[in-house]
Design goal:
With 692 residues, the chain is mainly beta. The protein contains 8 helices and 49 strands. The longest helix has 21 residues, at 158-178.
């Protein structure tokens, strides 16, 4: 009770609401739901007692819940394990500013790319730290701020997290709404931010007991008294904010329904965030278009250079010549202090005479410009820095561009044979999958490939035991294929599984080495293992399971968006009515906003998607049947692909799959500022929908 009186006295000293009789100890403890309120009730949930700890400006209350089920549950395509735990904490402070600071501290723990805003409290975030590619195998966290309360809920199960967090949010909201006058009188908390400056806050008190309207005015300056335009001045009690004018001025009013107006003036001075010393100019590894001009003004056929930087050393290759007669030439040199020096050996293309060109250039923001001398005369040259971009792309392996066979090792003897792509391991023999590429094919041009992984899909047939698979580079001698032991790298496990799964093997070094004959995927060639597993070959159905190369490839930057793994663009602002303002695919008489989505991730599975307006929290559309937001309809050839509850689990079978996405329009935001977030086989893809 003593703690309660201290907190209450501190809060009342700021608010002046002397007649308020809030017993915060009991109030905050009531925010935590009893096990009977959670899904499954007391038969499944066990709750611990609530602990308390004092802080400088308030108290921290914590509790935890444990869940146990005798069976593994399945909700949609997500399996829930038998046991999981939830920890819930509520921080109660005597002022809004401290609560706001605590919220920001906790929210900053969220890993980049795995966080999103949620509609809890005045503001809140949800984030997760994945432990595997399995969608519900992660540590989940929700943090939200509501007036002087900050809640943090953590769980190792996403459904349990939402169950507890939703109850806590509702209880806090119910308490605040029933005591709103306690939170809006006798002080105004201001938080001020501006780009490039540190945030500052203050609590502005006043003495009027029954204010009609409180108006705060002032200006925002830098430390050297220069006015800051477009700074954000937020009133924490209301969650609203205003922007400063060109002269740094602002004005904000809060209506309280009393008898007399109150005016407060307050100026703020923000500290500039110190910028780190600019790094030395640099170029990253990549592919670049190069134009070469002669002194007589003529221009040679366009070149493409692939460069790699190792400290001050540079080497690479130049693809030069007329189309159809292009050859690769080696490059080597140095890069120091923004100066690039390269020597091109142009004998490598087949010339028998001495042929050398020297290039010198200086780095600028978007190019390297300089002069060249040597064979062919001399002149000027220019390397464009942003001419090529990296994309993830898949190359299907067919009988035209690759060969697969079975490799068998029995005792000291080895052989290859045609047939199923089966790997086995027992005391008598070891077999694996041997493959090679027809490297002269244009799709395997080493200039335009950064890395390549062989992807093999195991379908649920002919499987027994579990084994660890390794990648070996192979060499051919006397017409015999042999694995090079020094190139052994772990690739993945062949496991007993009743649904398809993939293993990947990095084969970049094989692709770039003309001396190597192929790649072998097999159990460790020495050591104990057992079992047999068959992987899909060239002509499997669906084609998504066929062997393929997952490459990081260089493409001209103006083409990158057209062949990105995921592209989403607005197709129609007033399209066919197929969805409504519910989480099921059903029309409501109103035209839909329609997007066109193209996916280039063969063999992957779409498990969820969300579309939302930039800057909004609650105006969202998604495919989560357990959520409150309206559905996104996945439509292919006019047919909805969602399940009966609005969810999706879509295997991408082809190299390029196209869907129409229908949503009930988000009218509160500009149509060209709609963002998307898609989960495909555990990987998150995010971006802004392109305009029509």
């Amino acid at each position: 009770m003593k703690k309660l009186l201290i907190l209450l006295a501190a809060f009342l000293a700021l608010t002046g609401a002397a007649d308020a009789k809030l017993k915060l100890d009991e109030t905050v403890k009531s925010f935590f739901p009893k096990p009977a309120k959670l899904t499954g009730g007391e038969e499944r949930w066990l709750g611990t007692g609530i602990t308390e700890a004092k802080t400088a400006n308030g108290f921290i209350y914590s509790t935890s819940y444990s869940y146990y089920s005798p069976d593994v549950q399945q909700i949609m395509n997500i399996k829930r394990k038998k046991t999981f735990d939830v920890k819930a904490t509520v921080h109660a402070y005597n002022n809004y500013v401290t609560a706001f600071d605590k919220y920001e501290e906790l929210a900053k723990k969220a890993p980049k790319g795995k966080v999103q805003e949620i509609g809890f409290g005045d503001k809140g975030v949800f984030y997760y730290v994945p432990k595997s590619a399995y969608i519900n195998d992660a540590d989940f966290t929700i943090v939200f701020l509501n007036k002087i309360f900050v809640a943090e809920i953590q769980a190792d199960d996403g459904f349990a997290l939402m169950d507890a967090a939703a109850n806590i949010n509702a209880n806090i909201q119910r308490f605040i709404l029933s005591n709103i006058e306690f939170f809006l009188v006798r002080n105004i908390s201001i938080s001020v931010t501006a780009k490039g400056f540190e945030r500052t806050s203050d609590i502005l008190g006043f003495t009027e007991e029954e204010p009609k309207e409180v108006t705060v005015t002032g200006k925002v300056f830098s430390e050297d008294s220069k006015p800051l335009a477009n700074a954000e001045v937020a009133v924490l009690e209301t969650g609203k904010s205003v922007k400063t004018a060109a002269d740094g001025s602002y004005k904000y009013s809060v209506k309280m329904g009393g008898k007399k107006n109150v005016n407060i003036a307050k100026n703020f001075y923000l500290k500039e965030i110190k910028q780190e010393k600019a790094a030395a100019p640099s170029i990253e590894d990549g592919v670049f278009s190069v134009n070469i001009f002669k002194t007589d003004g003529t221009q040679e056929a366009g070149s493409v250079w692939k460069l790699a930087f190792y400290g001050s050393t540079v080497h690479g290759k130049a693809l030069m010549g007329e189309e159809g007669r292009q050859r690769l030439y080696p490059l080597k040199g140095s890069f120091e202090n923004g100066r690039l020096s390269l020597t091109l050996d142009c004998r490598a293309g087949g010339s028998s005479f001495k042929c050398v060109r020297n290039f010198e250039g200086t780095l600028s923001p978007d190019s390297v410009n300089g002069t060249w001398t040597g064979t062919g005369g001399g002149g000027a040259w220019k390397l464009a820095l942003n001419s090529y971009s990296e994309i993830t792309d898949y190359i299907y392996l067919t009988e035209d561009n690759s060969e697969f066979s079975r490799f068998v090792k029995q005792g000291s003897k080895t052989r290859t044979e045609k047939g199923a792509l089966t790997v086995t391991a027992n005391d008598e023999k070891v077999s694996g999958i041997l493959f090679s590429l027809k490297k002269d094919r244009p799709e395997f041009n080493e200039v335009f490939i950064k890395s390549a992984n062989l992807v093999l899909t195991h379908v649920p047939q002919q499987q027994s035991g579990t084994m660890r698979l390794f990648r070996y580079i192979t060499e051919t001698a006397d017409e015999k294929v042999s694995p090079v032991t020094a190139t052994m790298v772990y690739s993945g496990d062949a496991v007993m599984k009743m649904e398809p799964y993939e293993i990947e093997a990095d084969i970049t070094d094989y692709l770039f080495s003309s001396a190597r004959s192929g790649v072998l995927i097999a159990p460790m060639l020495q050591g104990s293992a057992s079992g047999s597993h068959t992987f899909a070959g060239h002509n499997v159905k669906p084609a998504a399971y066929a062997p393929k190369l997952k490459t990081i490839r260089y493409v001209p930057s103006d083409e990158a968006d057209k062949i990105a793994p995921v592209t989403v663009r607005i197709k129609s602002l007033s399209g066919k009515d197929m969805v409504g303002d519910k989480n099921v695919v059903r029309g409501d008489g109103e035209p839909d906003t329609v997007f066109e989505a193209v996916f280039r991730l063969p063999g992957k599975t779409i498990t969820s998607m969300e579309i939302y307006g930039e800057g909004t929290v609650t105006r969202k559309r998604n495919t989560d049947p357990l959520d409150i937001y309206p559905v996104i309809g996945f439509i292919k050839n006019g047919i909805p692909m969602n399940d009966a509850r609005g969810g999706v689990k879509l295997l991408l079978e082809g190299t390029s799959e196209k869907f129409d996405l229908h949503i009930a329009p988000i009218k509160e935001v500009d149509a060209d500022k709609l963002r998307y977030r898609i989960v495909i086989s555990g990987e998150v893809f995010e971006g802004t929908a392109e305009k029509q």
